[in-house]
Amino acid sequence: MANIRFESVRKVFGKVVAVNDVSLEIKDGEFMVLLGPSGCGKTTLLRCLAGLERVDGGRVFIGDRDVTDLPPRDRKIAMVFQSYAVFPHLTVFDNIAFGLKMQNRPRDEIKRRVEESARLLELTELLGRYPAQLSGGQRQRVAVARAIVMQAAVLLMDEPLSNLDALLRLQMRAELKRLHQEIRATTIYVTHDQVEALSLGERIAVMQNGRIVQCDAPMKIYDYPANKFVGGFIGTPPMNFLSGIVHVNGGGTTVIVGESHIVPAPAIAPALAAKNGQPILLGIRPENLTLVPSQQANTIRARVRVIEPLGSHKLLTVQVGNEISKVSVAPDERVALDDEVWLHVDPEKIRWMDASTGEVIH
Amino acid sequence: MKRFTHWSPRYLFSRVLLYGAAILFAVWVLAPLYLIALAAFSRRQAIYVYPKPLLPLDFSTDTMTFFVTSTGVLSSVSNSIIVALATIVLGLLLGAPAGYALARFQFRGRDLFQIALLVTKMFPIAILSIPLAVSFIQFGLYDTLLGVVLIHTAMALPFVVLVTRSVFFGVPHELEEAAMTLGCTRWQAFLRVALPLALPGLAAAAIFTFMISWNEVFAATILTVQNRTLPAQVLTQLNDSPIYYRYAGGFFMIAPALVFIFIIRRYLLNLWGPMGK
């Protein structure tokens, strides 16, 4: 069993609070992604788990063991570093065998396990080479092989793909996913790339300023961001935010956006009604806006400012009042620059947020 | 656009300039060495011949043999080697950990320490010599090799610390962290990863230390009477010797240093094939 538990973990560098009372539980065998912009504390949190940083407060558990005060070697973890940290003075074989040799495993077991993990990462032909003779992608695979050969219950990865070129990154992403399905180690994966997070994670913990702002399944995070930051961070292009004013009229609640009226979904209407007359934010994904030929219920008037054909779809930049929105439409959609268009939105797909705090209204 | 082919005049010109400069520097260094060697291996009278022959037409080992067999020379050579090697060992043992600490850790007084290292080099050894001699006599270190080793180590330490600092700075900390996640203690990670990678740089530090100790005259002259190192011996002995012995002595000082550098030079080159950029 290797579930992981952070209990109000705190890490301070001088005056900067890198990790601010983070509590998080990761299930045995789960693939958890820590996602956030640079400086949000995700790597520090990972290093606290690895034992490379001492926590300034809180406890860290792996399985039932309190590992807070243990050195890295006693935590039964394996780690892949952003820079790969492949040992330049050792061959690929000796790199992968390094950890097993430290455990004084018998020679034939080392050979068998090294060859096994080399095969898993297609390094068999390269075992005799030195890292300087490898490409970046190959070095990255050596770093992964060196970690999985340990058969540790916990596998930590710190932005392992960020130094690869785009095509290779796409390949390795799928490789890592396959690998996890094969070995089922509890994995914590740190990245700032939201596409990686969505594609790999069973759950994603989104971090900002040393705190976890939301932790959920990828599609939950995508569809129901907890606040404006998460909505804006995840998705390419990110979520659109339009401002509106709540208007309660008789029994009905409407929200006025520009000159248009949106009728919120019945479930959310009472919560919105409480903010009568107040400004509010509408979070809408670009693919949830559709072009319609004329004004109808729940449409917003906009003017097309930029058209970007992207192959599988067309990305429009439109102006709504004084605000800019992105709209994703079919590649054959007939639309011209400076056209005035009507955007229809399904009220169920709108995330309503407090205009001042950016928090979602339930 | 102008084409810059292999045989264009501009290319040839730049090559000629480059090689010309390289040859000039090589001659600058090698010519004195050659002239000293020439004089050391000629008969005594050859030194006074004018114009001087530039080829060893008058080859003889007489001068060298006489110099080498004269009293004190051979024992001073072995003294010098012992002192230099001991200084390397002691200097690296004391200096490398300091360099490592400066490269790896942020601590209070780190910058002050680095400046203090340089300040010690500003302090003239001549001023220290009398108090040093007095204390060495008190401690029973006077006229011992250990005493010379200690003073040479003290002189070499700032260099060793600063050189090893940049050496360890060049070894990414993540490599040691990776070793620690793979089952090493901090100390094992240092021994198995940082140290082997730092070896070429440490070899360079060893060469520096060797040169400092091998060439050091002043302290060695003042602190010893019987157990002289080679420079101290040569200095006192050759002061009242004819000029041809001085050439023999000069050559004798250069040769072991050259041999040492040739041996250790291998470690300056890469030990494990071509390293990345």
Can you summarize this structure?
The complex is a heterodimer of chains A (362) and B (277). Chain A contains nine helices and 20 strands.
Task: Note the topology.
The complex is a heterodimer of chains A (362) and B (277).
Chain A (H helix, E strand, L loop, with lengths): L3 E10 L2 E11 L4 E5 L6 H9 L6 E6 L2 E2 L10 E4 L11 H11 L4 H14 L15 H13 L5 E5 L7 H18 L2 E6 L2 H7 L2 E6 L2 E6 L1 H6 L4 H6 L6 E10 L2 E6 L2 E3 L6 H5 L5 E6 L4 E4 L6 E11 L4 E7 L2 E7 L10 E6 L5 E4 L8
Parallel strand pairs in A: 3-8, 3-9, 6-7, 7-8
Antiparallel strand pairs in A: 1-2, 1-4, 4-5, 9-10, 11-12, 11-14, 12-13, 14-20, 15-19, 16-17, 16-19, 17-18
Chain B lengths: L8 H32 L21 H8 L3 H32 L5 H13 L2 H15 L5 H25 L3 H9 L4 H30 L2 H6 L6 H10 L3 H26 L9
Helix pairs in contact in B: 1-11, 2-11, 3-6, 3-8, 3-10, 4-6, 6-8, 7-8, 8-11, 10-11
Radius of gyration of chain A: 25 Å
Q: Largest chain interface and its two residue counts? A: A-B, 27 and 24 residues
Average pLDDT of chain A, rounded to a whole number, is 93
> Strand percentage of chain A, roughly?
25-35%
Instruction: State the fourth-level CATH superfamily of chain B.
Output: MetI-like
Secondary structure class of chain B reads mainly alpha
Strand order of the largest sheet of chain A: 6-7-8-3-9-10
Strand content of chain B: under 5%
The parts of chain B where pLDDT drops under 50 for at least 5 residues are: 270-277
Average pLDDT of chain B, rounded to a whole number, is 84
Gap from first CA to last CA of chain B: 31 Å
Explain what the structure shows:
The complex is a heterodimer of chains A (362) and B (277). By secondary structure, chain A is of the alpha+beta class. Helices cover 25% and strands 35% of the residues of chain A. Chain A contains nine helices and 20 strands. Chain A has helices spanning 42-50, 92-102, 107-120, 136-148, 166-183, 194-200, 218-223, 228-233, 269-273, and strands at 4-13, 16-26, 31-35, 57-62, 65-66, 77-80, 154-158, 186-191, 203-208, 211-216, 240-249, 252-257, 260-262, 279-284, 289-292, 299-309, 314-320, 323-329, 340-345, 351-354. Chain A starts with a strand and ends in an 8-residue tail after the last strand. Chain B has a single domain (72-272), classed as MetI-like (MetI-like fold, Orthogonal Bundle). Chain B is built from eleven helices and no strands. Chain B starts with 8 loop residues before the first helix and ends in a 9-residue tail after the last helix. Chain A binds chain B through residues 50-52, 71-73, 77-79, 81-83, 85, 87-89, 98-99, 102-103, 130-133, 146, 150, 156, and chain B through 172, 174-175, 177-186, 188, 192-193, 196-197, 271-276.
